[in-house]
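User: I'm writing a short report section on ligand binding and want a predicted complex to refer to. Could you take this sequence and zinc ion and write out the structure as tokens? A short remark afterwards would be nice.
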Amino acid sequence: MKLPTLEILKNAYGKYGVAAFNVFNAEQIHGVFGGSQLAEMPIIVQITPAARNYTTPEFLEGMISSAAKVYPNTEFSVHLDHGNYEHCLSAIDNGFYGSVMIDASHEEFEKNISISSDIVKRAHDKGIAVEAELGVLSGVEDDINISAEKSKYTDPDQVVEFIERTQCDSLAVAVGTSHGAYKMSGGKGLQLSILENIQKLLPGFPIVLHGASNVPLDEIEKINKYGGNISSKAKGVDEKEMLQAIKFGVTKINIATDLRLIWTRIHREFFSITPELFDPVIPGKTYIEELTKFVNKKCQSLKINNYEN
Ligand SMILES: [Zn+2]
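Assistant: Sure. The structure tokens for the complex follow:
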């Protein structure tokens, strides 16, 4: 069942994190919807501009609408991830999205506010929620490539003014996570004290963590065993740290890299172990099944009472 993004986030705040999965193809949409239905936890289905360019927006929207029929118990909303001004306008006009992210975080503070608040006005006119970003994440994902030197943590002192002036509904922050498979390889880890400070200033306001995949080492090792070459220095966010972040107001947790690592491992393994086979259905089916399990487990892991009793 499709729900407004803000309703999903408000229900979750302080109790559990809502996983937001980036999807590109039918197998991922199957796995994400199936896993959410098993977990009985809501999800946010995210579409990046790169995903829209890959299959066309019409294909993605058609597949998501079909998934909602195949998995009727899955509660979800559809979100545009990392939109620029034009992407956001097109998503707001098209009516399929419950929320958009306006990513003007690379701009100066004043310009970020003016671009973000403009999108908020247009989105709110149509009942669509807006995620804005303050601070700059490092990493590489799709069309985004920010070096560690250019990244900067969110400044809690700027957050209240930013929210008041933009009127955005949720805020993506830079607190040590990064995009892609080379997370935190040289960084200082998750900055929980920044989240704690932001929560004191903005109690109840949903915070969004980008680049929040776990990047399990055994997954990287299996990929590399079958011919991959991914740095084993990569390190994502561990489950206990994530739960602490959720207590400090993180409500939406963006996960893209973990889905890609599972895809890569299954396909490398398949082509390597059975080089005589060439049927896309075989690894595709395995991917749907493994992704369903992964999403189920991931969603369950984001309930903060997990470690309290
Ligand atoms: Zn992101």
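A remark for your report: The chain has one domain: 5-307. Residues 180 and 257 are 6 Å apart (CA to CA).
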